[in-house]
User: Which sequence fits this backbone?
């Protein structure tokens, strides 16, 4: 057989940013043809001797996975050529015809395969919030696609509209759909940056991710105090859930996942220092006397590397994630029991402490920009979702002043 396939960096024509395309180079009876793979590198990031991307390349989260992708494309091309040879049709084809046959396969990069590499990477780096979101979105999309593979080229504007219609037809919420769509968009954007998908076919150019205003999750400061003052003993099964909720409120509404991951070592000079699991955003929070009184309960006998709160018991990261999901569900169930004891009619969940902290800050006149910074939001738009409406007692006060 006189047909060969190699990976190569085409250094004949540079892009404006100084990068060159990675190619599948096909040689058939000494005549060449090339297929661009959508990956662009600088010369110093390509190892011409072994035809792989060097570890120095910073354009992807994992060079190993990107090299595996290149090898997979090469293997697919070789497999096509081998089958043509076995059928005794290879010699009768031109190099252009062979290229066209391989291109049809090369252009069908799997959205699900790439998405799974991101899911695996998020788990490895302990970014459990995003891990959960990505895993869930991929699962829902796979079910919609009847568990068939989905290429980036197939993920079109029309496809997104059909997915939306199916979700809403089944009774799914618009905000739930928005969560899935933002995740799908994030995966596609990362694939473009990694050179695995093309900007030309980007399906979100015209697709608008729609949301609706959610019901306010905040509760009043009186309700917060009723939870705080609830008479419970360490033997009561609601004792720890109450303490966790109040600790979250005292730490600006820290999420249950971040609360679970707090270690003794995160306590430095009277402050709590941690990076949010979902975003990596660093937090620096003063330990108030109220928070200290709760921490003292859980610090007895703890070593510097121990978790502060009794949530995580597992060592394996994936098992930790599953454990946190299970315990958060139980935590929310217990919060409903606490709400009943305190006469709170609102739905009390792990998210309420965060919304309540933000709303309380707004009612005290704290500037939106400051609240945004305290919550670790990238911009004030997210904060404004938390603060969509003032509490009714504040509105009543304004109403009274207006009509008097």
Assistant:
């Amino acid at each position: 057989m006189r047909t060969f396939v190699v990976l190569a960096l085409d250094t004949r024509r540079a892009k404006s940013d100084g990068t060159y395309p990675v190619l599948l180079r096909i040689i058939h009876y000494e005549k060449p043809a090339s297929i661009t793979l959508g990956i662009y590198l600088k010369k110093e990031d390509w190892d011409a001797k072994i035809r792989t991307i060097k570890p120095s390349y910073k354009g992807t989260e994992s060079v190993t996975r990107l090299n595996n992708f290149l090898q997979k494309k090469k293997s697919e091309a070789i497999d096509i050529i081998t089958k043509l040879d076995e059928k005794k049709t290879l010699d009768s084809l031109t190099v252009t015809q062979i290229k066209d046959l391989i291109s049809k396969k090369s252009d069908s990069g799997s959205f699900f395969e790439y998405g799974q590499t991101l899911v695996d990477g998020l788990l490895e780096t302990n970014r459990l919030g995003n891990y959960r979101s990505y895993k869930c979105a991929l699962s829902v999309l796979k079910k919609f696609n009847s568990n068939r593979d989905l290429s980036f080229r197939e993920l079109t504007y029309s496809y997104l509209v059909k997915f939306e219609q199916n979700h809403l037809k089944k009774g799914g919420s618009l905000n739930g759909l928005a969560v899935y769509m933002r995740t799908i968009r994030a995966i596609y954007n990362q694939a473009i940056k990694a050179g695995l998908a093309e900007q030309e076919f980007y399906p979100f150019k015209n697709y608008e991710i729609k949301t609706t205003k959610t019901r306010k999750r905040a509760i009043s400061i009186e309700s917060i105090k009723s939870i705080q003052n609830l008479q419970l003993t360490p033997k009561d099964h609601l004792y720890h859930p109450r303490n966790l909720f109040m600790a979250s409120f005292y730490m600006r509404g820290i999420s249950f996942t971040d609360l679970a991951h707090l270690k003794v070592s995160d306590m430095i000079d009277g402050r709590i220092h941690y990076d949010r699991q979902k975003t990596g955003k660093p937090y620096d929070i003063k330990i108030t006397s109220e928070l200290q009184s709760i921490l003292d309960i859980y610090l007895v006998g703890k070593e510097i590397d121990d978790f502060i709160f009794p949530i995580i018991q597992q060592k394996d990261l994936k098992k930790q994630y599953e454990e946190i999901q299970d315990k958060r569900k139980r935590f929310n169930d217990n919060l409903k029991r606490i709400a009943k004891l305190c006469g709170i009619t609102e739905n009390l969940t792990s998210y309420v402490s965060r919304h309540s902290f933000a709303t309380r800050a707004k009612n005290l006149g704290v500037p939106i920009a400051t609240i945004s910074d305290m919550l670790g939001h990238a911009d004030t738009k997210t904060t404004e979702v938390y603060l969509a409406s003032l509490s009714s007692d504040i509105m009543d006060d304004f109403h009274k002043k207006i009509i008097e």
